[in-house]
Structure formats: C-alpha cells, structure tokens
Write a structure and sequence with these properties.
With about 280 residues, this protein is an alpha/beta fold. α2 (about 25-35) crosses α4 (about 55-65). The protein has eleven helices and nine strands. β8 (about 260-270) and β9 (about 275-280) form a beta hairpin. It has helices at about 5-20, 25-35, 40-45, 55-65, 70-75, 95-110, 130-135, 150-160, 200-205, 220-230, 250-255, and strands spanning about 80, 85, 120, 140-145, 165-170, 180-185, 235-240, 260-270, 275-280.
Length: about 280
C-alpha cells in the first residue's frame, strides 16, 4: 500500500505547481498556515507528518483557487494591517502596506497624550485605517463611513472582533457625517479607467471596482473633498489622503486652488514614491 505524502513532499509538489504557473510559491505556505492556525515553528515540526485528509483537500482546493486568480487574503478571509488581523471579503479592498504608512503619519503628527480628537475615516472599506487609529489612540472618537452597505458590514465586523469602540455610518463621501472633526482621513478610489491595462488580473477580477476607480482621471474624489471638507473640520483641522504615486502635483493643485486657506504637504512612501497628502486648514 502506498504511503501518504508527508507534509514536506506535499508542499514541494504544490510550490512547484504554483511556480510553474507563474504564481508565488510562498502563497502555499500562507494558505497552509491560514487554514491550520500554525506558526512557522509548528509547520516545521509537522513536515515529516502527513496532513489530515480533510486539511490536505482544503489546501489543494485553495491552491487551485489561488492559481485561478483569487488573492490569498480573500481565500483565507483575513489580512494583516498595522499589527491587527482584519476580516476581508470581496466587498472590500485588501488593505495595503502603503496605507499603513498613512496611519503612521497621522499618529506621528498627533501626541498620544493630547486631548481626545474627533476623527473620521471616509470610504473605510474594511475599517483598517479608522480601527487601527482607534486601537492606537483609545481616547479618540472615531467615525467610519462608506457608501457600500456590504463594506460597512465588514467594517462593523472588524470593529467587533478587535473590540474597537467606533461609530459606523453609511453614505456618500462626507454626507453621513454630523458635527465637526479634528482629523479626516481617506483612501478614496483614485485609479483612472485607462489604467486598467497596467493592473493585476486578480485585482480587476476580484476586488470591488467601486473602491478602485474614479472619474476625471482618478481625481474626482479629491475635487469633491476639496470643495466640501472644510465645513466638516474644526479650525486648524487636517485632512490626510492616500494618492496614486503620479497624482501628487495635481492633487496638491486641487487643494491650493480651493477657496480655503490651506497648507499642503506631500509625503513619500518607503519606496520613494509620492503616496500621501496632508492638507492643514489654516485658522482664519
């Protein structure tokens, strides 16, 4: 009778299959750790043992789904962001590492001991930005908003899972907000329709289009925010935005041409690309 494959043999087979089809072989390990809950050390300890039949079947199925274009994070329904594990599904974008840098910038600009701030995360999706800020600054009052009912359901789920006391509201851009805020943060849709040809197939086929693409060459939401945001901010309030790496000059111009008196700062990410903008609304 043929012996079942031990884990090391199975992993080798699946990694080779993934590599041969142009995927990342590390995805196999990520899928295995995700479905077993093992640490890397536990994986090493089990290399000479066969996987239970059910677990093996699930790993093979998920590997084939990955090769069909599904992102690992959607297959496992989890994504790491700012040291926290977020639930994700196809209703929301997968949180990206560059967005963590936006969160870091906001926190670096605000002292931990200062009075509680009122903060809004616009187009929150999974809630990654707003919830991460709340976890780092528990005394802040954080509001999450999104136009998508399905996305807001995901954000609420993450707030519950991570015990983050935030408020969620549904509506278009700033419309659902009430009162005024010290900080407003947004990672809005900013990809132009003509940029589709440069994007990964897995992103186009599986991530929500509404959260990716914006009219007016990707600048629509920045123009809307420039026209509307001041009335939602307290004096000397600040707006933080993620931008496309080629949009800095145009986004800066949009805010400098708005009626408000502002100071606009562009910040590069760790790869040296312009990826963030801070707009400070000067007290009149």
């Amino acid at each position: 009778m043929r012996k079942p494959l031990v884990l090391a043999q199975l992993l080798r087979q699946l990694r080779n299959q993934v590599q041969a089809e142009g995927g990342e072989s590390a995805a196999v390990d990520s899928l295995l750790l995700g479905i077993t809950g093992w640490s890397q050390i536990e994986l090493l300890r089990n290399l000479r043992q066969p996987l239970p039949t059910e677990t093996k079947g699930r790993l093979i199925k998920l590997t084939n789904q990955y090769l069909a274009g599904w992102p690992v994070q959607y297959l496992l329904q989890q994504a790491e962001f700012f040291g926290h594990e977020f639930y994700v599904d196809a209703a929301v974008l997968i949180p990206r590492p560059e967005t963590e840098e936006l969160v870091e910038w906001v926190l670096a600009d605000t002292a931990a001991r200062q009075p509680a701030l009122r903060v809004a995360d616009i187009g929150t999706g999974s809630g990654a930005i707003g919830i991460s800020l709340k976890m780092a600054r528990p005394n802040w009052q954080v509001v999450l908003s999104d136009i998508s009912t399905a996305a807001l359901k995901v954000a609420k789920k993450n707030a519950t899972r991570l015990h983050a006391d935030v408020t969620c509201c549904q509506g278009d851009l700033l419309a659902p907000l009430s009162g005024d805020f010290d900080l407003i943060i947004s990672n809005p849709p900013y990809i132009a329709a003509n940029e589709k040809k440069f994007m990964d197939k897995s992103v186009l086929e599986h991530e929500p289009q509404q959260a990716l693409f914006a009219a007016e060459n990707g600048l629509y939401f920045y123009r809307q925010l420039a026209q509307q945001v001041q009335k939602y901010l307290r004096p000397a309030g600040r707006l933080y935005l993620e931008i496309g790496f080629q949009q800095a000059a145009r986004v800066k111009e949009i805010f400098l041409k708005s009626p408000a008196q502002v100071e606009v700062t562009v910040k590069k990410d760790l790869t040296g690309k312009d990826r963030m903008v801070r707009v400070v609304y000067m007290e009149e």
